[in-house]
Amino acid sequence: MTKFWILLLGAAAWLPAQPNLMPWPAKIAMGEGSLAIDQNFNTSFIGTPDSRVQAAARRVVRQLALQTGIPLTEGFRDPTHARLIIRCDSAGEAIQKLGEDESYRLEVTPQQARLRAANPLGILRGLETFLQLVEPGAKSFVVPSVVIEDQPRFPWRGLHLDVSRHWMPLEVVKRNLDGMAAVKLNVFHWHLSDDQGFRIESKRFPKLQELGSDGHYYTQDQVREVIAYARDRGIRVVPEFDMPGHATSWFVGYPELASAPGPYAIERKFGVFDPAMDPSRESTYEFLDGFIGEMAALFPDAFFHIGGDEVNGEQWKKNAQIQAFMREHQIKDNHDLQAYFTKRVQQIVTKHGKRTEGWDEVLAADLPKDIVIQSWQGQKPLAEAARQGYSGILSAGYYLDHMEPASTLYMVDPLEQETATLNAAEKSRILGGEVCMWSEYVSPENVDSRIWPRSAAIAERFWSPQETKDIASMYRRLDAVSRKLEWSGLTHLSSYLPMLRRLAGDQPIDSLKILADVVQPANQDARDEANNTQQTPLNRLVDAARSKSKTARDFAVLVDKMDRDQIRAWLILWRDNDAKLEPVLEKSFLLMEEIPASKDLSRLATIGLEALDGRLSDQRAFLEQAKKLHAEVELAIVPSIEKLISRVTEPRP
Ligand code: ACM
Q1: Which positions of the chain have pLDDT values less than 70?
Q2: Residues 43 and 146 in one domain
Q3: In terms of residue numbers, what domain contains 192?
Q4: Exposure letters 349-388 (e unless 16+ CB within 10 A, then b)
Q5: Which atom of ligand 1 is nearest to the CA of 438?
């Protein structure tokens, strides 16, 4: 049989039958024929029993029933008659560990699928691969014949979710855990406290949540529920409590922790603020010992994130007692004062049985080397940390609020640029990376649309062989994965039309959607400049618009191919849209701000049509203006219009 097989290396875009897998597996060989998924589909299990595997197999059957419409039975069958045989050779760790074996082998023939792994985590990963392979065939749903041998490139593949700036209810967390599992992400980094909200129940220090959360926090039972849900999907949960800065919400209930007298209120603006914990007082460490002890008992994971980012030191400079403390201890500046604080907190974290993790800023001389550095500032500090003996993970380049396209996020690699120059031992300290979803400009309604599908492309960067870099292949598979992610309950696609309908009131949304389809939300910096706060409703076009418009991407492909007919069809649609849309915009206070964007879209399309017809005039000034933000959105087709102009004016060979 092997002689018919073609080995697919990396993401071989040239193969027409390339399956829509994401992340792309380490090794894959396509076979002949396919396994039918029909009412006879059933699973059987051999090996060490594991509740995660059994629950995952039940989810697979439920998902297949939903997809195929065939009423399939849950539960395990006799292996001789099963269509999917799962074999797991050993039990996993009682608490999922960093670096635990996630490898698996999946072999599908027209008769049967066999999934084998040494550890339950490999079975979980392999089942997600199996689900991604299911496609409609001519007679039934099918899974193509294939042999996959797969394992991750990095052991730490995370999604960081900020629930402080905007509260994210439990169901948002759970559906995103489902999305993570689908693309083999394995660390949920829960950013539970920041200036704008303290989001977890402390029984020892109840004023944290009572006064610091506006009533939006997770109870400890809910936290346990999330941890169990994540464990079932092979995901570790790492909590973050940001300190000594980004901690205003703690000080509302416990002002004595801060470096200046209160009273404090929950911060409503976004940015970097002066309040910081007082590192000079023993009472601060006594409090943190109690709090960290409580949280360390609640979260089973071996790692505990203490934040440490963006401390501006203003309160420290102005506090005479802190200044005296620094002189007494020969602490020369704020950086060293923070290092003193980090060292003390690291000792507390260690005492409670955990390893400390922090953002770049915690990096300082003479800290214990078991600290894990999460770099938000780039490969350079990450490389520096690895050279000094620290383990690290990369988040710089994976900030979803920067609104970069999947193609940009996809090319960022934890082991490229400065980290590429590390020696083998140093490289082995780079554990992986984390996608970051900061929540200044997301609500439960649109957060999925910022996370997905782009995080699937980053998940591939963390899992797949380094050379997997074909952007066209990535986008083709990303679109397919995006559709499948929707079935797991994510709302990244489905929240769009309701948001547009709400904007339009009782008016039709057709012409609004044509505009919305080609706008790109401004990034976080630009939105901060517009003086938004936690109380700004996220109900405008900028909030409904999808990050990186698929329409604009499809149009860019047409321009690259110079498909004149299709280009013309789009341009006519856009040129004529303003006349229909303007009456809609004029009737709504929420939409009125989009009048200039709609007019500019129409004019851009007119210029594009003139270019196609060889009637060019100098439009550079207008094109520059059209690139600017309109009510916090950008017109995403401007680069393609510029390209079209240069294509029609370039001399023919
Ligand atoms: C950060 O972005 N301040 C970690």
Answers
A1: 1-17, 75, 651-653
A2: yes
A3: 156-452+468-488
A4: beeeebbbbbbbbbbbeebeeebbbbbbebbebbbbbbeb
A5: 2
